[in-house]
């Protein structure tokens, strides 16, 4: 690793840390600025009891003091504090339990989307302007244009109400298949179009024509040269794709009753659970920033001709 690459990586890590800090700061002050509080909706509590709870969790202190205390807790102890609604449980335990499900869901969807997209994209490029190419382009255009929550609802209606393959009161009882398919459809369609476009460009390059003129087998030309070089744009999309899957899972997990971090995040906002809002926001933001950083570094590894600045 040369000095320029190392300097680039260090600079990106610094920017990633700065980005996460900005997310923490903005989220912290915005949640406190919204009228109301986490205990106002509990009708059984008297004003004195609410004041006692606020004092117990430090919500009666000035906002700036709460902020500095919170930063110290997460920087030096990596402690997100206790949940205000799910009392008796720490935010870290809730996030850990949710991430076990969300990571399995996201990794499965990402793997299926990548493999499916590359295969269909290469097939469409090799059969350009043929019936197969036209069908693939029409289907992928439809999937790219359709939001995940609409696709998830349609799949739930089809397989739960029409075909009755999964229970209508929660697809999780029928497995993770429908949530994975819902999250994988958009990135698979996008990767298909990206691979097709990139491979068509590569197939028109001089070195491909030269290889064919020298009698190199079509299989080696396609898999050894064309497909390998056409995957560079796909690799750069892997980071944003994982970010999409993470953010898209917030709604999908609600639709299919998946007990993941997305559902915890939505519930934390509804319940005004400040520590859980902060904890899930930090984890999701860090994951997105790290995935984009890894994507940029992989871009350089795959194509050494790229200069990093």
Number of helices: 12
Number of extended strands: 0
Mean pLDDT: 82
Shape, principal axes of CA atoms: flat
Approximately how much helix is present in the residues?
Answer: over 70%
Biggest β-sheet, characterized?
none
The SSE order reads HHHHHHHHHHHH
The span between the termini is 15 Å
SSE class: mainly alpha
Low-confidence stretches: none
Strand content: under 5%
Rg, Cα atoms, Å:
24 Å
What does this protein structure show overall?
There is one protein chain. The protein is mainly α. The protein is 75% helix and 0% strand. It has twelve helices and no strands. It has helices at 3-33, 47-56, 63-76, 91-126, 131-145, 148-162, 177-203, 206-213, 218-230, 232-255, 261-270, 274-302. The longest helix has 36 residues, at 91-126. The two termini are 15 Å apart. The model has no long low-confidence stretch (mean pLDDT 82).
Quick overview:
The chain has 309 residues and is mainly α.
Ordered list of secondary-structure elements with their pairings:
Elements lengths: L2 H31 L13 H10 L6 H14 L14 H36 L4 H15 L2 H15 L14 H27 L2 H8 L4 H13 L1 H24 L5 H10 L3 H29 L7
Helix pairs in contact: 1-12, 4-5, 4-7, 4-10, 4-11, 4-12, 5-7, 6-7, 6-10, 7-9, 7-10, 10-11, 10-12, 11-12
């Amino acid at each position: 690793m040369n000095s320029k690459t190392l300097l680039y990586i260090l600079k990106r890590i610094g920017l990633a840390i700065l980005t996460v800090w900005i997310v923490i700061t903005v989220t912290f002050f915005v949640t406190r600025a919204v009228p109301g509080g986490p205990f106002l909706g509990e009708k059984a509590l008297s004003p004195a009891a609410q004041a006692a709870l606020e004092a117990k969790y430090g919500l009666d202190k000035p906002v700036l003091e709460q902020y500095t205390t919170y930063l110290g807790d997460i920087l030096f102890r990596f402690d997100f504090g206790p949940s205000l609604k799910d009392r008796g449980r720490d935010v870290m335990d809730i996030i850990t339990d949710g991430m076990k499900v969300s990571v399995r869901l996201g990794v499965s969807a990402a793997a299926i989307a990548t493999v499916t997209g590359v295969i269909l994209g290469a097939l469409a490029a090799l059969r350009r302007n043929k019936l197969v190419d036209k069908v693939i382009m029409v289907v992928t255009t439809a999937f790219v244009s359709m939001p995940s929550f609409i696709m998830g609802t349609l799949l739930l209606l089809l397989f739960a109400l029409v075909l009755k393959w999964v229970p209508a009161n929660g697809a999780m009882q029928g497995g993770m298949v429908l949530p994975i398919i819902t999250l994988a459809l958009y990135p698979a369609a996008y990767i298909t179009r990206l691979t097709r476009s990139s491979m068509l460009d590569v197939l028109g390059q001089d070195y491909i024509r030269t290889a064919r003129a020298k009698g190199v087998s079509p299989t080696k030309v396609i898999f050894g040269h064309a497909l390998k070089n056409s995957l560079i744009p796909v690799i750069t999309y892997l980071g944003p794709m994982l970010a999409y899957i993470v953010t898209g899972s917030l709604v999908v997990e609600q639709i299919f009753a998946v007990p993941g971090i997305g559902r915890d995040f939505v519930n934390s906002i509804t319940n005004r659970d400040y520590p859980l809002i902060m904890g899930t926001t930090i984890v999701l933001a860090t994951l997105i920033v790290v995935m984009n950083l890894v994507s940029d570094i992989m871009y350089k590894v795959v194509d050494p001709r790229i200069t990093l600045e």
